Amino acid sequence: MDGSLIVSNILNPPVLFFFLGMSAVFVKSDLEIPAPVPKLLSLYLLLAIGFKGGVELAKSGVTQAVVLTLLAAMLMACFVPIYTFFILRLKLDHYDSAAIAATYGSISAVTFITASAFLTELGIDFDGYMVAALALMESPAIIIGLILVNLFTTDSNREVAWSEVLQEAFLNSSVFLLVGSLLIGILTGEHGWQVMEPFTQGMFYGVLAFFLLDMGLVAARRIKDLQKTGVFLIFFAILIPILNAAIGLSIAKFIGMPQGDALLFAVLCASASYIAVPAAMRLTVPEANPSLYVSTALAVTFPFNIIVGIPLYLYGIELLWR
C-alpha cells in the first residue's frame, strides 16, 4: 500500500485534532470540553451530512444504483452481527457476544464523515445517497443482537420490552435527525442548499475537527479499559473491521459502485457504533459488560479506521477496480 495515503490521511486537520485530544490525556493536560458541547457538535454533523445527502439524492433521483446500494446496506447490517456473534462465542458468553456483535453490526457516523472528508481532500467524488445507507445501517443490528440473546439464552425469566427496543433502534436522536435532515434536503433541493450552504458546508470541517478533538479525549480515557478486554478482543477489534470491509468491497464491486461510494460503503461495514448501540444494549441487555463493547469500538476500532483503515480500504479499491 502507498504509505502516502496514510500520511495524507493523518495530516488531515480533523485527524490531527483527534491526536491532539489523545495527547492531552497522555500528558495529563487539564483540557476539558463541557459535556453539552460534543452533543451539540454531533447533532450539527448529522444535520449537515443528512441535509447534503438529501440534496444530492434529489438531484440523482431513485435509480437502480440507489436501490442496489440500499439493499446491500441492509444486507450487511443484518449479516455482520450474526457471524460475528458466533466468532465471539469462542471466548465470551451469550450476553457479551450479542452486545459486541450488535455494536459491530451497526455503524459510526463520525468515521463515515471522516472518510467523506478524506475523499474530498483527494478529489474523489461520491454520491449523496450514501447517507441514506448510513441511516439504514444504524438500527437493524440492535434488533439482531436482541434476537440472538433471546435465541441462545437459557434464562426463562428474562423479558425484553420490545417497544423500548424499537423506540431506541428507530427513533433515537441520531437516526431521527439524520433521516429528518435527509428528507428536508430532498424536499428543498438546490434552493435549500443555496440557503443553508454557509451553515452546512462552510462550518463543516471546523466542527468536525472540534468533535474529533473531543473523541481523542474520550478514546484515550478508554484505553485503560482494554486491560479488561484481553488480547482476543483487541485482535477482534482490528481484524473484524478489515474482514467486514473486504466483504463490503466485494459486494460494492459486484453491484458496480463507483470508487468513492465503495469506500464509504466499506467504512460503514467496517465501523462500530459507540453511541446508539451501547445505549440500547445498556437498556435491554444489562447482563453484558459495557466496558467490553464500548472500549473495543471506541479505543481500538475507531482510531484504527480513521488512521489506517480508510487508506487501507482505498488501497483495496485501487486493486479491485483496476
How much is the average pLDDT? 86
Oligomer: single chain
Q: Tell me the β content.
A: under 5%
User: How many β strands by DSSP?
Assistant: 0
Q: pLDDT below 50 for ≥5 consecutive residues: which ranges?
A: none
Radius of gyration: 19 Å
Distance between the termini: 15 Å
Structure class: mainly alpha
Question: What descriptive keywords fit this protein?
Answer:
322 residues; mainly alpha; 0% strand; globular
Characterise the protein shown here:
The protein has 322 residues and is mainly alpha-helical. It is 80% helix and 0% strand. The protein contains 15 helices and no strands. It is globular. It starts with a helix and ends with a helix.
Produce a short descriptive summary.
The protein has 322 residues and is an all-alpha fold.
Helix and strand topology:
Elements lengths: L2 H8 L2 H14 L9 H25 L3 H25 L5 H12 L3 H14 L7 H9 L1 H13 L9 H10 L1 H28 L3 H19 L3 H30 L3 H12 L5 H9 L5 H31 L2
Helix pairs in contact: 1-15, 2-11, 3-10, 3-11, 4-5, 4-7, 4-8, 4-12, 5-8, 5-15, 6-13, 6-15, 7-10, 7-13, 9-14, 11-15, 12-13, 12-15, 13-15
